[in-house]
Design goal:
A hairpin with a 5-residue loop joins strand 1 and strand 2. The chain has one domain. The protein is α+β, with helices and mostly antiparallel strands. A two-stranded antiparallel ribbon has the order 1-2.
Amino acid sequence: MQKSSVVKTLEQNLAYQWLTDSTMNGWNAKPPTWNFTKYIVNENGVLTNYFGPSISPLDNDVVKAINE
């Protein structure tokens, strides 16, 4: 593991490039706004949900998104 950039710069981590570019992932352009931003990717590699940092990982909507 190593520290990587999540902000849109030339050094941005490739995973965050995909997670935050709607032309790549199909719909989402929301960057992480703080620690604990949650992106849900299904078993087929499809980005299905975005939850901001204020949403608990145990929130019913997050749990439902994980279990779908």
